[in-house]
Amino acid sequence: MPDFSYKARRETGEDVLGSVVAASKRDAVRLLTEQSLYPLEVIDTQPAKRAIRHNKKVKTRDLASTLVQLADLLQSGVPLLRSLKVLADQASNSTLESVLSEVHDLVAEGTPLDEALVRYPRVFDELTISMVRAGSEGGFLEDALKRTADFLEAQDELKSRVMGAMTYPAILAGAGTTVTVVLLVFFVPKFAELFARLEEQGGLPTATVWLLWISDTLGSPWVLLIVAACIGLGAWIRIFASTTRGRLKIDGWKLKIPLIGQIFLGFSLSRFCRVLGTLLRNGVPLIRSLQISSESAGNRVLGQAVLHSAENISSGETLSAPLAQCGLIPRPVMAMISVAEESNNLDNVLINIANGIDRRMNRQLDLMVRLVEPLMLLLMGLIILFVMVALLLPVFEMSANVG
Fold first, then answer.
1. Which among 35, 103, 192, 385 would be 20 to 30 A from 298, CA to CA?
2. Topology of 165-403 in CATH?
């Protein structure tokens, strides 16, 4: 159970400091009252530790279903606290059940819903938190929850489609790599004596020399050090990515990857336009909408550009002018935004832009996934062909010399 530090006042007027163990802040206040203490300040000393306990992610479809059910309960007139309690009681996922129970307690203590969700970043992503915050501020929480669920389901469907399409290429890559390593580590060394004699007689072909070098390298102890270094580098990158500066750097690198970087940017733009259009449609002011949509764009580089645009807009400029200066948004999209501002139809146009970007990015992604399979087959075939040629070429030369 969490600890709460408190500052309270006795009936005599004396102030006292201390700590108490309770299930929630409300229970801590009740315990102090029973001790004839008037609480002046009660602070949870372990808010982060409570969130760290839930280090398991929740499946996207489970989270989306929970958001839809919460929206339905709220639309039916069920109070927020009662709705959270009902969802926690019927949750099939143990992590989600525990998180919803704690969110219920936090909200009961007076914590806004979005601030309660922020404590559980492994369960609620930036998009969910941003939309809940906007819905709470703008009075359209039910609609925000349902739209967030739609976003999450669409992302999960895209991820499932890509993973399904990449399964066969991944199997090919794994099988091809295994066969190649086995050939190089166990099969090629058996020809070492033959190749040594051939080298004394007149040298070996270049392909065979390369093959022997690769085989010796894979069989040396240095390989383990290289693997350990790669694992350490991966762990460092993961830690670096958890920091604000690291996330910004990695998001910038992602946008610079050939071909794939454009897909990352496209989906981030689509997410930004869809969230911004949804907020504007529900009456959220433009500046506040830009701040929220920048947090849910999914890319910190784009988010910073949007925040910079919000600063310029507050100085009297239009949306299209500062956005065009960031260099991340394509000209056709900027032209549509500019026309939409003039016609006062920005919310609908932004959602149409998001739909168009999604369709285009899905086509590009499907094309790339289809190309991976033949390219993987070609690559595996070339590697195995190289091994076979490097092994057989000295034998053919020896047979020719004998003949």
1. 103
2. Receptor-associated Protein (1.20.81)
Q: Which of 95, 60, 58, 87 is nearest to 71 (CA)?
A: 87
* Of the candidates 76, 211, 57, 197, the residue with the CA atom closest to the CA atom of residue 122: 57
The reply to whether 165-403 shares the fold of 52-153 is yes
Q: What is the DSSP string of 377-392?
A: HHHHHHHHHHHHHHHH
Strands 38-44, 3-9: pairing is: antiparallel
C-alpha 356: how far from its chain's center?
A: 23
List 42's β-bridge partners, or say none: 6
Domain residue limits, the chain? 3-45, 52-153, 165-403
Taking the C-alpha atoms of residue 62 and residue 96, their distance in angstroms, rounded to an integer, is 9
Reply yes or no on domain 52-153 having CATH 1.20.140.10: no
Residue 49 pLDDT class (50, 70, 90 cuts): very low
In angstroms, what CA-CA distances link 137 with 131, 254, 293, 311? 10, 33, 14, 21
Give dist(CA 220, CA 218) in Å, integer: 6
Residue 68 identity (one-letter amino acid): V
Cβ–Cβ under 8 Å, residues 87 and 69: yes
- What is d(CA 280, CA 100) in angstroms, rounded to the nearest whole number? 29
Distance from chain centroid for Cα 393: 49
Q: What is the pTM of this model?
A: 0.69
- Kindly state the tokens that stand for 63: 């989270």
User: Does the pLDDT of residue 212 top 70, yes or no?
Assistant: yes
Task: Please count the other Cβ atoms lying within 10 Å of the Cβ belonging to residue 208.
Answer: 23
What is the C-alpha to C-alpha distance for residues 398 and 297, in angstroms, rounded to an integer?
64
